[in-house]
Structure formats: structure tokens, C-alpha cells
Amino acid sequence: MKKNFILLCSALCMMGVNAQDQDSANTANDTISAWKAKGNASFLFNQSTFDNWLAGGENNISGNAGLNYDINYKKGEWSWDNKLIASYGIVKTRTSAFAKKTDDRIEFNSTLGKSITERWNYSAFLNFRTQFAKGYNYSQDENGAEVREEYTNFLSPAYLLVGPGFLYKKDDNFKFNLSPATSKFTFVDKAFTLPDEAYFGVEEGKTMRYELGFNASAYYKLGVIANVTFENIVNLYSNYLEDPQNVDIDYQLNIVMKINRYLTTNLSFQTIYDDNAFKGFQIRQVFGVAANYGF
To answer: Which residues pair with 85 in a beta bridge?
Structure first.
């Protein structure tokens, strides 16, 4: 799975280079390309070692790789915005029998728009989310040894949202989309479904759950002070067919504090509420100094 992630990063880097070459060719011909591509790859590493350290501590090593890539199109009345976010992280401590994930996600957002006015557009959007590798529930056996049970895997679960709507777009840094007729598909491996218990909302023996509802999504990126940017991504979904008052929430905050061309301090925060998966808020936070490559 890690090899697949590296291949994915390499492929997207090549796409970025090709897009830049195309832009250079267009500039030479005194034309402006309808396509704009930009991205950032980052790697965060942490290692701690303790030897006779009376205050306490546990040896550990961890790493996190991330990719944030945008490909946008704008020509005449038509616009097409695409964003890929991918990240994978693991940590290994001395007392744990297993290396454990600290981050694992693949998310792709795509919105096609046709202008109505200067900033309002008819739209069609797609959102897809899943993970790279297996996920586990950890516990201890009768002898106190750590054991694990596989609970998730690639495409299990996977979420797909599609629907028509209306897009407000001030610029590439501020836009929101409203879709009153959004279809949501939840895909799972039926090997994980349990008797008399829904697995991410999917019933035993089935591999898909369908929902129809209202979706609102927004993107806002701003520079707070010099070399500090805040990227906000939020998705809200209400299912018309079951418990519409239970709104699914997915909020992401990515803060980048630039040190120099290749080093940044990164903070990633994400919270999810989906009562089909968990009766409460899921929270993920990653913080550290990262090596970056922009393309």
C-alpha cells in the first residue's frame, strides 16, 4: 500500500510538471492557458529516544506524508475545479507490538460550473473519500499481550457524493456549493458487516448504502499574516430519507506557516460527525515541521 502511495505522488508530480511546461509554452505564444495546476507535497518526521530518563518517556518514531493538489479550468462561461488531498502516517513505539496509523485518507473534490451571473453558477459536484490501508481495533488478550482486529480497509468504507446545485465563486480562495438533491453512496466490504449491527450504516450482507439529501460545501483560504495561510474545508449533509435532523459534518483546517522555501510548520485538524459510523465527533490532529516541495 505504501508503494501505491509513492506511485500516486510521483504520478501527480509528473502531472504538475507537464502542466507547468504547458503554461510556459502558452506564455511563449502570448496566450493564457485555461488550465491552472498547483500542488504541494510534504513529509513530516519525528523521533524520540529515552535512556535512563527519570521523568519518563517512550521511544518512538513516526512519519507522515501528504499531498495537496489542485487542477482548475476556466474558460468563458465554464469552470471546473478539482482538488486531491492524500495523506498517510504511521508511528511505532517501543512497547507496542504494531506500527499504528496516525493518518490515512484519500479525498477528491470536483465541481463543474456554468455561469449565471458574475459569481453564481449552475453546478454539478462530486466528492469521494476513502483510505489507503487497513485499520484495526486494538485490545489485550488474557495474557496482557496486545492484539488487533481488522476493522477497515481500502474502499471499506468509501463515500461518494454527487449532485446538481448552485455554486458561488468569488475566486479560487473563496467558494461554496449548495446541492439540494445529493446522492450519497457508502461502500463497504460485506466481510466486515456484523449480525444485527450496521457497519457504517450498511446492513449485514450488503455492500452499499444509498441516501438522498441536501449537501452544502465551502472552501475558504486566507493569509492571516505574512507566510501564514489558513485553509478551511467544510461539508454538511442531511439525509432526507432517514433522520434529516442528524446532519453529517466534515470540517478540515490546514494551517501552513512558511519558514523558507522548503520548510514549513504545518497544523492539520479535522473533525467528523456521522452517526452511522460513530455516535460522536471523530477528531484528527497532526502538527510538526515538514519538508515541502511545491509544484
So the answer is: 68, 107
Domain boundaries, the chain: 34-294
> Looking at beta carbons, which pairs linking 128-131 to residues 24 or more positions away fall under 8 Å?
128/158, 128/159, 128/160, 128/161, 129/105, 129/158, 129/159, 130/105, 130/106, 130/154, 130/155, 130/157, 130/158, 130/159, 131/104, 131/105, 131/106
pLDDT digits (tens, 9 = 90+) for 200-230: 989 888 899 999 999 999 999 999 888 999 9
pTM of the model: 0.83
CB 259 within 8 A of CB 289: yes
By C-alpha distance, which of 85, 74, 168 is closest to 121?
168
The arrangement of secondary structure in 34-294, i.e. its CATH architecture, is Beta Barrel (2.40)
For 6-68, the DSSP string reads HHHHHHHHHHHHHHHHHHHHHHHTT---SEEEEEEEEEEEEEE--SS-TT----EEEEEEEEE
The span from the CA of 161 to the CA of 214, in Å, is 10
pLDDT score at 56:
74
Biggest distance spanned by C-alpha atoms of the chain: 73
Beta strands 208-225; 120-130: pairing state: unpaired
Annotate 208-245 with b (16+ C-beta within 10 A) or e (fewer). Answer: ebebebbbbbbbebeeeeeeebebebebbbbbeeeeee
